[in-house]
Amino acid sequence: EAALSFAMAEATMDVSESEGADGVVLFEMTADTFAGEAVRLYRALPPTKEWAEQNYYRVRAAEDLPARLSANAFWLDVASGKALSANLLEAHRHLTDVITALAFCGLPFEAQPVAETTGTNGLTLAAASPVLLVTEQVLPAPVAADDRPLLIAQQFFRPDDRYRFEGNEQIEKFISGEFVRRVVYGGRVTLTNPTASRRVLNVLRQLPLGAIPLRNGVMTDDGVVRLEPYTTEKIEYFFVFPFAGQFSQFPAQAAAGESVVGRAEAQVFNVVNEPTEVDKTSWAWISQYAPADDVLAFLGKENLRRLDLGEIAWRLKDRGFFTKACDLLASRGLFHDTTFSYSVHHKDADRARLWLARSSLAGRVGLVLESPLLKVDPVEAKVYEHLEYDPLVNPRVHPVGEKLKILNTALDAQYRAFLRTAAYRAELPASQRLALVYYLLLQDRLADGFAELAKINDKDLHETVQVDYLRAWVALRQLDVKRAAKLAEAYKDYPLPRWQSRFRALTQAIAEAQGAEVAGLDEPNRQQDLDQQAEQSPSLDLAVETGKLWLTAYAVGEVTLNLYPMDIELMFSRKPFLSEGATDFAVIRPALSQTLKIKANGEPEELTLPADYAKRNLMVEVVGKGRRAATAWYANQLRVRLIQDYGQIEVRSAADGKPLPTTYIKVFARGTNGREQFWKDGYTDLRGRFDYLSRNDRKPEEAVEFSILVLHPELGAEIQNATPPAR
């Protein structure tokens, strides 16, 4: 995010005069003309984002499927040891597919230029680094001898043994020899229009004599087929021969109008009781008739995804065959439901667990199940995933009413989903309890979160970094500075930037609370950046005690002190903006005005009021370096620093200057319509600071003014007014 920068209004302008060629006086501005301190303005809290762990780039757990790496010729080449494959362009279905494929090719991240030279022998390319070269050629092709206006063919096949493979090419197996009775066959009529004209045809086809139609078929079918130019249409039907014999068939034909324009070849069907011609290399025969060892050998060398493994189900009752078949499938990375389901029949517990985990039963027993044979984990089943929400600010630190309510709808839905999974468990595992702690802390249910965190044994967790960060954060909230510092120090040089930044921010907060000078982080986030800018921002703060006035100035060396007599009762009658009367004095001459030299290092400085004014109710105002501070003169023992540019307020003890953590802050806002309403409340942190501005559901620009009540149980109260920061 880019922050706007402005030169300070008090910057000294170094301007010199010179005379131009025409006698015109010119003003030349040197490099120091606008030399001033650049001010980075307040950055509004960004919208809350939902964060999820990703194994692949921008892919949620539910979308993380094996299909992200497609099965194609390129990966077949890689599996065969040929990483540099001409089939690279086939790996393109998903980003994961593309990136992984490119990783095998040895291409550089930045391509070097390719020199092109054109000569008499053609184009010459000289590459300075590995490149992919894709070429396209135009070659002569033979002209088809068949120029009939319509092509019609009629073929027959067995649905259970329809294809054969040559390499990776699938080829249909058509029957031209004998047929076997009581075996299901299919017929197909193929019509091709090789012309540029649309054809409307009447197609007649009949079953062979002696055949019975199947699958709602009929003996004779006559239908209209519309063929667009250069298209093909297929018509399939199924039948069976109940008896052996010789049967003829009227061939399929197509007519246009009253003329026959195409006819298939006639065929005589030789139907036998038992086949005399057996394809002993087909899966249909091997699965049913081959010895068990031959079946296993066939499974060991063929493409298992092309086979109907259900054909060997009858063999799986034999435990020896079942065991060998399961081992073979597992070695080839294939799970087959029917095959592994026989584990129940054989009481094979290990394979039964594997089958049950992948069966439909696993989705019907609830979100979580722990049993000897079946374990259901919602994360592995991809029905639940851990989500985080950042930045998230709760406007109320105390619940309104008896019922707890999560205002962020996304967090509310996620927390309910988490509770649904937790409800299935007799005891939460450590990792789930860690997630529970996180969600409780997000809701500001600190006591509940602290109690659950105390139940976690670190030895039961793999998330060492996460739990250490939570323990350090909790230690800060419990004011256990030593423990927090020890945990954070161990990760100050952690190699992951995200976690290193988080732990360094904790270290910085601890050092700041102890009064040490804090160097800026290399890459601060929004909150860290605001904290750093707040430290460098010019500011004026007034704290009042009976008979004494304390001024704390940062980066301001001279101020004007103005005193205005006021009616304290009147100021408090204008609640909740009790001190807003300070703005009314802008057009009133002060009863007393003095210019004072002050300390600019943030060290409190006592300003003694004149005796005539010390016992009066006053509005005290100091102005300097573009900053103005005003406060009512009433007794308390607080020193409050309002950092309006960054939406923060800091509370310290007026007696010793130490931060006052757990000081209650309540904020009201006046909207653009003049309506006054509650904005947020909470307690100061270990440094005595509180972010009075940030809310997820509201924007600072919706308000024109804020009234801030600072309430300490022992040191009194004070009211401050603030305006939304410039952006």
User: Could you say what the CATH architecture of the domain at 151-272 is?
Assistant: Sandwich
Number of strands: 35
Give the N-to-C terminal Cα separation: 12 Å
What spatial order of strands do you see in the largest sheet?
A: 6-10-14-12
Detailed description of the structure:
This protein has 727 residues and is α+β, with helices and mostly antiparallel strands. Among the domains are: 65-104, no CATH class; 151-272, Sandwich (Immunoglobulin-like); 283-376, no CATH class; 536-633, Immunoglobulin-like (Sandwich); 638-722, Immunoglobulin-like (Sandwich). The protein is built from 16 helices and 35 strands. The strands form twelve sheets. A four-stranded antiparallel β-sheet has the order 6-10-14-12, with no helix packed on it. It has a four-stranded antiparallel β-sheet with strand order 13-11-16-17, with no helix packed on it. A four-stranded antiparallel β-sheet has the order 25-24-27-28, with no helix packed on it. The termini are close together.
Secondary structure layout:
Blueprint: E1 15-19, E2 25-29, E3 49-52, H1 73-79, H2 95-103, E4 114-119, E5 122-127, E6 151-157, E7 163-166, E8 169-172, E9 178-180, E10 184-192, E11 199-206, E12 212-214, E13 220-227, E14 232-240, E15 245-249, E16 253-256, E17 259-263, E18 267-272, H3 283-289, H4 292-301, H5 319-331, H6 337-345, H7 349-358, E19 369-370, E20 375-376, E21 387-390, H8 409-422, H9 430-442, H10 446-454, H11 464-477, H12 481-489, H13 497-513, H14 526-536, E22 539-545, E23 548-554, E24 558-565, H15 568-573, E25 592-597, E26 605-607, H16 611-614, E27 618-624, E28 627-632, E29 638-643, E30 648-653, E31 664-671, E32 676-683, E33 689-691, E34 703-712, E35 716-722
Parallel strand pairs: 9-18
Antiparallel strand pairs: 1-2, 3-21, 4-5, 6-10, 7-8, 10-14, 11-13, 11-16, 12-14, 15-18, 16-17, 19-20, 22-23, 23-26, 24-25, 24-27, 27-28, 29-30, 30-33, 31-32, 31-34, 34-35
